[in-house]
Amino acid sequence: QVQLVESGGGLVQPGGSLRLSCAASGSIPSINAMGWYRQVLGKERELVALIISDGSTNYAASVKGRFTISRDNAKNTVFLQMNSLKVEDTAVYYCFADSGWNRSWGQGTQVTVSS
Q1: d(Cα 96, Cα 108) in Å, to the nearest integer?
Q2: Which of the 8 DSSP states describes residue 83?
Q3: Which of 35, 111, 25 is nearest to 71 (CA)?
Q4: 21, 81 in Cβ contact below 8 A?
Q5: How far apart are CA 115 and CA 104, in angstroms?
Q6: Which CA distances in Å does 52 have to 27, 70, 78?
Q7: How far are the Cα atoms of 7, 15, 58, 64, 66 from residue 107, in angstroms, in the given order?
Q8: How confident is the model over 8-67, as pLDDT tens digits?
Q9: How many CA atoms lie within 13 A of 108 on its CB side?
Q10: CA 102: distance to chain centroid?
């Protein structure tokens, strides 16, 4: 079992930056991928970015070139650096961790991009 705690959301103006953090605890060695989804009320959750155990990454087309996912293995933490934020990036961002066939979720953190 993996527990995830997110932080770093908030309100930012268009063009600004935020960094989200996701700290994992529990069965850490079993994690083979971590990443972020986001969800707008009334819409399906969409994958934003993921990083797998070999360090390779994948991004949604809408955030490629603006967002960067990274990890600190010593702290069991994954980060999402979000630059050049747009109004359409406004959503609740959820961290996830895949461990075998199991997926764990964080509680979600609100990101609001508004002038």
Answers
A1: 10
A2: -
A3: 35
A4: no
A5: 34
A6: 16, 10, 11
A7: 10, 26, 22, 24, 24
A8: 999 999 999 999 999 999 877 788 899 999 999 999 999 999 999 899 999 999 999 999
A9: 11
A10: 17
